[in-house]
TrEMBL record:
Keyword set, alphabetical order: Aminotransferase, Pyridoxal phosphate, Transferase
Cofactor(s) of this protein: pyridoxal 5'-phosphate
Domain Aminotransferase class I/classII large positions: 29-404
Other facts noted in the record for this chain: In eukaryotes there are cytoplasmic, mitochondrial and chloroplastic isozymes.
Pfam families in the cross-refs: Aminotran_1_2
Species of the source: Trichocladium antarcticum
Protein name: Aspartate aminotransferase
GO molecular function ontology, one term from the record: L-aspartate:2-oxoglutarate aminotransferase activity
């Protein structure tokens, strides 16, 4: 049996706890700013029009069946997925330096990457520490500690400016043991919404190169952040062009709205060298072994939908339009929230709301204020003061601004 000293009751996942509390709240005014999923202006989930079309194509395809995918997943998806990240004419692709595996969305990609590194990266133990930004997506900690990799953090968020703590970040990366694994959010950092500028990325790359650090990119918001797929991949492309050997965890949950379909990919990119293609083949063979013991074959339906869109020029163009709709609405909500707070004369600076990017914003509200806004105004956000911009809409943004104003005063 499993006594409590052996299997203690685990705490509920805070985010899912928040969702439960929101559902149980009977107030007609309630606002959900916790959820990490896009909502339209009516606070409803949005099936992308292009995804509806691809779904229709798929359902009318007489050849479509429910057979197993290969262990590495749907090749028509993984190949396009690597082009999406690295660019269609990327040298890394033409030189066969990229190994790609379809995974259980971004979480599965992070896990497969973590598992691979735990098994094969510097197995003598030196410099195997994974550096996570402080703060980071809460699941990173669990995913990397689950496979036994030691964890550390690098400073990221400056509470005063509500922007990047660039000096702190650089200092820690420079002091970290050579060859450390550095987890980087490719764009739209979760939870802060703060990204380095292109110039800052170049400096980060220079330090990491000097220290021979290993970049682990997590990209869950490509195209969703700025509305431009290439711009949101620019940090990854910079590192690849700089010749880093690196890995990338890629999610299609947010940018395709395929959350529950669990579509994503993991990519390994080798540095340019005469052995690069050989290294890539060997890495791919080991990824396949790991994948086999974990999930055997990745899920087919969402992968096919993404693949249909990525392999058709007209649908691809329509997808970009849908991405601009989502990112545009979010950027509009950032502007609206900031201007409403400024109109109210809410104490403090609110420029960070529009300076930050992507799904989330770190408001700067403290835990007491977060709990007060929840009990007084039925506005739900995580305890660290993070709000999902997607939870705001033209109908509730004024109400939320007033509620923030009240708890800040
Ligand atoms: N990485 C980050 C930073 C995220 O914010 C998320 C989702 O919230 C993910 C990865 C992975 O999500 P999923 O497993 O749904 O693709």
């Amino acid at each position: 049996s499993f006594p409590p000293e052996v299997v203690p009751q685990a705490p509920e996942d805070p985010l899912f706890g928040l969702m439960r509390a929101f559902r149980a709240d009977a107030s007609p005014d309630k606002v959900d700013l916790g959820i990490g999923a896009y909502r339209d202006d009516n606070a409803k989930p949005w099936v992308l029009p292009v995804v509806r079309k691809a779904d229709e194509i798929l359902r009318n395809d007489p050849e479509a069946n429910h057979e197993y995918l290969p262990i590495a997943g749907l090749a028509s998806l993984t190949s396009r997925a690597s082009e999406l990240l690295l660019g269609k004419s990327a040298q890394a692709i033409s030189e066969k330096r990229v190994a790609s595996v379809q995974t259980i969305s971004g979480t599965g990609a992070c896990h497969l990457g973590a598992l691979f590194l735990a098994r094969f990266y510097k197995t003598n133990g030196a410099g195997r520490t994974v550096y996570l930004s402080n703060p980071t997506w809460a699941n990173h900690r669990q995913i990397f500690s689950n496979v036994g990799l030691p964890l550390a953090t690098y400073p990221y968020f400056n509470k005063e400016t509500r922007g990047l703590d660039f000096d702190g970040m650089k200092g820690t990366l420079a002091d970290a043991p050579e060859g450390s694994i550095i987890l980087l959010h490719a764009c739209a950092h979760n939870p802060t919404g703060v990204d380095p500028t292109p110039e800052q990325w170049r400096e980060i790359a220079a330090i990491m190169k000097a220290k021979k650090h290993f970049p682990f990119f997590d990209t869950a918001y490509q195209g969703f952040a700025s509305g431009n797929l290439d711009r949101d991949a620019s940090a990854i492309r910079l590192f690849v062009e700089e010749g880093f050997e690196l890995v990338i965890a890629q999610s299609f949950a947010k940018n395709f709205g395929l959350y529950g379909q669990r579509a994503g990919c993991f990519h390994f990119v080798a540095s340019p060298s005469s052995e690069a293609a050989d290294i890539t083949t060997r890495v791919a063979s080991q990824l396949a072994i790991l994948q086999r013991s974990e999930i055997s074959n990745p899920p087919i339906y969402g992968a096919r939908i993404a693949s249909i869109v990525l392999n058709d020029d007209a649908l691809f163009a329509e997808w970009q339009e849908n991405l601009r709709t989502m990112s545009g609405r979010i950027i509009a909500m950032r502007k609206a929230l900031r201007s409403k707070l400024e109109e109210l004369g809410t104490p403090g600076q609110w420029n960070h709301i529009t300076d930050q990017i992507g799904m989330f914003s770190f408001t700067g509200l403290n835990e007491t204020q977060v709990l007060k806004i929840r009990s007084d105004a039925h506005v739900y956000m995580t305890k660290n003061g993070r709000i999902s911009m997607a939870g705001l809409n033209t109908k509730n943004v004024g109400y939320v601004a007033k509620a923030i104003d009240k708890v800040v005063r």
